[in-house]
Model the fold of this input.
Amino acid sequence: MLSKKTQYAFHALIHLAERADQGPVLISEIAQEKNISIKFLENILLELKNAGMLGSKKGKGGGYYLLKPPKEIALAKIIRLLDGPIALLPCVSLNYYERCENCRDEAVCGLHEVMSKVRDASLKLLENKSLKDILTKNVPIPKLG
Amino acid sequence: MLSKKTQYAFHALIHLAERADQGPVLISEIAQEKNISIKFLENILLELKNAGMLGSKKGKGGGYYLLKPPKEIALAKIIRLLDGPIALLPCVSLNYYERCENCRDEAVCGLHEVMSKVRDASLKLLENKSLKDILTKNVPIPKLG
DNA sequence: TATTTAGTCTATAGTTTATATAGGTTTTAT
DNA sequence: ATAAAACCTATATAAACTATAGACTAAATA
Done:
């Protein structure tokens, strides 16, 4: 399962995507709309900002906003940023590979083979779907405030 | 990622499967062969026993053994037993469903839809592959001791 | 330009869950 | 009886999660 952090990040990013090009969005607005602890959300958005995914503006009229169009932000990228590996085992991770300490030879490990396939199947979806693809369907988004 | 517990369980079960019909296998043998802390492994095997997946025999000549043929133990079952949900989000889990607290309506949540597909893709593999399918390839298994 | 206000940024602390260890108890075979 | 093995309970350690307090920054306005 994805961590709470990543789950919240998804919902927050969806909210930001739905309000793209409408100027900075308040943390408090996202927190209220998505039912997330405002302070925890604060940390998450900051992490996303430091990773280059979000921009922010301080002071009155400030808030957070996407730095790229939603279409260009793959779901896989969000998961990797906050949760790390998408694979079920370290030894089949593309981006966070670690040698398996429990088997003598990965090349003949049957587990390795199956888990690689699971990873590929997941990645096929998560790499090709973007924030734009997961926006709330059939719902007009009013500007709050 | 799968928890350490589940990762260790997989390797232990593979070991047991490779020695099926050879009588009880010592915890210490598995621990040494798979490089797992013997005490942690003890807890894991006990949990698998209490869940009905393993049998055990106490005392001299004792150990653990599979209660069913490896072919009949699906990988998904092992994961669910120790790690819980296979899905990435609680709201798309088949066996551990929880309502999403962060979105107003699951029916129109785009995240829900994509994550359901990821779940299905993973399950297709994990439900259909068994312990038998992940045994070490091309390796004759000698009886130790 | 001083002040107020709205907001981000930083640090930290408490709580829970995951991982691991230690020691003692019970059962079984010989 | 003795030794070997699983079993049980308690505890220690580390990581993840949640929450809180206060510092800092930018904008608005008088």
